[in-house]
Write a structure and sequence with these properties.
Blueprint lengths: L7 E5 L5 H12 L3 E3 H12 L3 H10 L1 H16 L5 E3 L3 H7 L5 E6 L2 H12 L3 H23 L11 E4 L5 H13 L2
Helix pairs in contact: 1-8, 3-4, 3-7, 6-7
Length: 181
């Protein structure tokens, strides 16, 4: 395939398809990955709280975010991990001057809520409210802690609007991007 790039970050808001893209890349290239959302969800589950509640905990206790972000930065620096997925992975790679492709998946609010509804079995209204609250809490936290907003385009080498295309089409776009490097 001509792909020699061994590191890519995948970022996007909840429901944007980052986890699906990571799985596609892993299956296509046999690469290893780390998923920040999974780390976040596992920590929420370990604490017996919802994602929104855990987001609130993170906003009240910066040490939790700092620990999770340290783990992600270590994986960005680790050449045995090819794909680092998290809302801030692109930012960390950019700030670390990591030689990698940094992708942001852009998806409309309505479509993200649809995807969360399908994934978590909640109503569309519940998904919209949960997404909006989580986005607000997270953006406030990231702004306060790091003076950044995840969807600011500054650190990304590529922004893909995935609102109206399939997961397979997103994967194909990313494979093409990787093939150019």
């Amino acid at each position: 395939m001509g792909v020699i790039m061994n590191k890519v970050t995948i970022s996007g808001h909840p429901g944007s398809g980052t986890s699906t893209l990571v799985e596609g890349l892993k299956n296509n290239f046999g690469w290893k990955s780390i998923n920040g959302g999974e780390i976040f969800r596992n920590e929420a589950k370990n604490r017996g709280v919802s994602l929104a509640e855990f987001g609130q905990i993170c906003s009240e206790d910066e040490s939790v975010d700092l620990q999770l972000d340290d783990i992600l930065r270590q994986h960005i620096a680790d050449n045995s991990i090819n794909i680092v997925e998290s809302r801030l992975a692109g930012w960390w790679a950019y700030k670390m001057k990591s030689d990698c492709i940094r992708i942001w998946l852009k998806v409309s609010e309505h479509e993200r809520a649809n995807r969360v509804t399908n994934r978590e079995g909640i109503s569309l209204e519940e998904a919209k409210k949960a997404n909006a609250k989580r986005l607000m809490v997270d953006n406030e936290r990231y702004q306060k802690m790091y003076d950044l907003t995840p969807d600011d385009p500054t650190p990304y080498t590529h922004i893909i609007d995935a609102t109206d295309i399939t997961a397979q089409q997103v994967l194909e776009k990313v494979i093409a991007i990787l093939g150019d490097y």
